Amino acid sequence: MALKERLQELRDRGLADISRSENLTRINEIRVQLLGKKGPITEALRGLRELSAEERPQVGSFANQIRDELATAIEERRNELEAASRAAQLNAEAIDVTLPGTPVAQGQPHVIQRIIDQLEDMFIGMGYQVVDGPEVEDDHHNFEMMNLPKDHPARDMQDTFYLTPELLMRTHTSPNQARAMENHDFNKGPLKMVSPGRVYRRDTDDATHSHQFHQVEGLVVDKHVTMGDLKGTLELVAANLFGDEFDVRLRPSYFPFTEPSVEADITCFNCMGKGCAVCKYTGWIEVLGAGMVHPNVLQMAGVDPSIYGGFAFGLGPDRFAMLKYGVTDIRNFYLNDTRFLTQFYQRG
Ligand code: 2NL
């Protein structure tokens, strides 16, 4: 067969093979087979020697043209196959962003923190400031300024974690309030504050005692503050935390830092005042202590008790949470057992 026909046939077969090739391996094979050193084109070019001088350039250029044509066809087919393979890979690895995700377990504030937050929100709404402070306190702010001199029975070593003779773990949040009174400029208006936080007592833990618990104290100091203001405020606390139908009653009591001192009861949540075992048939449950700030406390904080007076209260969010949710062992709040804590999670 003439060289030219042979080249033509090589081209037709080559182009057919190229367009039929299904993958990159095959197209590489075809390239090596057709255009390689031992391939038929190279072989055919060697046959040029046998042609006449007239025919040689003509057939030679035809051979080159066919070689270029095949090389171009191979390149195009390779690009096609590469694009198809990339498209197939992208398709296989595609992520459907509209599929629902795997839910991530999400935490919520501790039930005691939630009660503290709720109280803070309510008091902020009434113009109070929230004041934080250190858990390690000095004797002066924790006791002395609260009208608890060194020989006072409430300072019994049994009840306090002392770090040094002068430093201790605060037994209440009152030292924050003592500092606030010291720093407050009463010409600019009344002092209205709440101080929430952890407090410590040297107690043996049991169902109703924890050596570390929480306190939210409130303090209002101004001219003409009355016990009626205190009672009204406590009624709002009860309504906010428990509900509108809860009433407050005050009973005489004693605290070194208030005079007079009261204990506040709220309507028994179990019998709504009718009398039951929970309230020992009184219809009332004791929830907090309060009173009118003792003149000595004002005096020691640099506030003139002949001009200013105030009320103060201290409540335990731990106890509130126990009453509200019927928890009978305070230690549950401090075990970090999520099976217990998630019971109090709010929806939404
Ligand atoms: C309770 C109830 C109470 C206070 C805390 C207080 C603070 C200042 C002045 C006067 Cl700065 N009082 N706080 C008052 C009454 C009761 O806590 O059961 N405590 C053991």
From TrEMBL:
Entry keyword set: Aminoacyl-tRNA synthetase, ATP-binding, Coiled coil, Cytoplasm, Ligase, Magnesium, Metal-binding, Nucleotide-binding, Protein biosynthesis
Coiled coil start-end: 63-91
Keyword Transmembrane tagged: no
Catalytic activity: tRNA(Phe) + L-phenylalanine + ATP = L-phenylalanyl-tRNA(Phe) + AMP + diphosphate + H(+)
Location(s) in or outside the cell: Cytoplasm
Cofactor(s) this protein requires: Mg(2+)
Pfam families assigned: Phe_tRNA-synt_N (PF02912), tRNA-synt_2d (PF01409)
MF-aspect GO terms: ligase activity
SUPFAM superfamilies associated with the record: Class II aaRS and biotin synthetases, tRNA-binding arm
Main location: cytoplasm
Binding site for Mg(2+): 259
Aminoacyl-transfer RNA synthetases class-II family profile domain mapped to chain residues: 111-323
EC number: 6.1.1.20
InterPro entries according to UniProt: aa-tRNA-synth_II, aa-tRNA-synth_II/BPL/LPL, Phe-tRNA-synth_IIc_asu, Phe-tRNA_ligase_II_N, Phe_tRNA_ligase_alpha1_bac, Phenylalanyl-tRNA_Synthase, tRNA-bd_arm
UniProt remark on cofactor binding: Binds 2 magnesium ions per tetramer.
Subunit note: Tetramer of two alpha and two beta subunits.
Homology family: Belongs to the class-II aminoacyl-tRNA synthetase family. Phe-tRNA synthetase alpha subunit type 1 subfamily.
PANTHER family assigned: PHENYLALANINE--TRNA LIGASE, MITOCHONDRIAL, PHENYLALANYL-TRNA SYNTHETASE
Protein name per the record: Phenylalanine--tRNA ligase alpha subunit
